[in-house]
Each structure stands twice: as structure tokens, then as C-alpha cells.
Specification:
By secondary structure, this protein is an all-alpha fold. 74% of the residues lie in helices and 0% in strands. The longest helix is centred in the last third of the chain and has 25 residues.
């Protein structure tokens, strides 16, 4: 994981704000329509939460305790929404596609590898918390 590449690419993406989250959800629902039912009809608040979570992740990327705490909380919360660990690959693919779209020329193979490494931590940590939070 290369925090410099992650932060640099996010700095290019960030000014696009809500359009980033809108693109992400459109991509996700087009490529994995089965997850659409997990979300409210109107995604305004969800888009804001997604973008805020991404910003927090990038801001605290080098603060392991903060990032892991944030991801554990998100994983436990997503268990209540009916999310499954099986959803994480599609979410990751949509996230990478979205970041690549908005990063433009700042998106390189190295940047993609850095974000892929970050998402591996995201999915592993959230997935473990989601599984723990599921009722037996």
C-alpha cells in the first residue's frame, strides 16, 4: 500500500464530490443489480456517507487504529443492512472503476495497485466485523 499514491489520486477525485458517489452507485447497480435492494430508493444521504467515509479513510490512512476502528464500525453497521461478504468484490470493482474514471491521468497501474491494497484491508476488516455482527 502506498499512502502517497492513494492520497494524491484522491486529491484529484475529491473535487468532484457527490458526482463520485453517484457514479459509484450507478456502476455498482449496473454490474451487480442484486445489491440494489439493500439501499433506499433515494441515495442522497447514502452518497454523502460514502464520500465522507472515503475521505476519512484517506485522511487517516496512516493511522492504523483509527482506520481499523472506522472499518469495524462500518462492517457492523452493514450487517444490519443485510450486506454480505460476497458483495465486497463487486463494491471493490465499482470503487476502483469510479476512482479511475475521476482520477484520469493520475490513475496509473501503481495507483490502482495502491488502491487495491487499501481495498483489501477495507474488505477484510469490514467483512470480519460484518460476520461477527450477524445474529447466530
Amino acid at each position: 500500500m502506498d499512502p502517497v499514491l492513494v492520497k494524491r489520486s484522491f486529491a484529484v477525485v475529491e473535487p468532484h464530490g457527490p458526482a463520485v458517489a453517484e457514479y459509484f452507485y450507478r456502476h455498482l447497480f449496473e454490474h451487480d443489480p442484486g445489491v440494489r435492494g439493500l439501499f433506499a430508493e433515494h441515495l442522497d444521504e447514502q452518497r454523502d456517507r460514502l464520500f465522507a467515509a472515503l475521505g476519512a479513510l484517506v485522511t487517516h490512512l496512516e493511522d492504523t487504529d483509527t482506520v481499523l476502528g472506522l472499518l469495524r464500525d462500518l462492517g457492523a453497521r452493514h450487517a444490519r443492512y443485510g450486506a454480505l461478504v460476497e458483495h465486497f468484490p463487486a463494491v471493490g470493482a465499482s470503487l476502483l472503476a469510479t476512482l479511475a474514471h475521476y482520477a484520469g491521468d493520475a490513475w496509473t497501474a501503481e495507483t490502482e495497485a495502491a488502491w487495491t491494497a487499501v481495498y483489501a484491508v477495507v474488505s477484510d476488516t469490514m467483512g470480519a466485523a460484518l460476520t461477527e455482527a450477524r445474529p447466530a
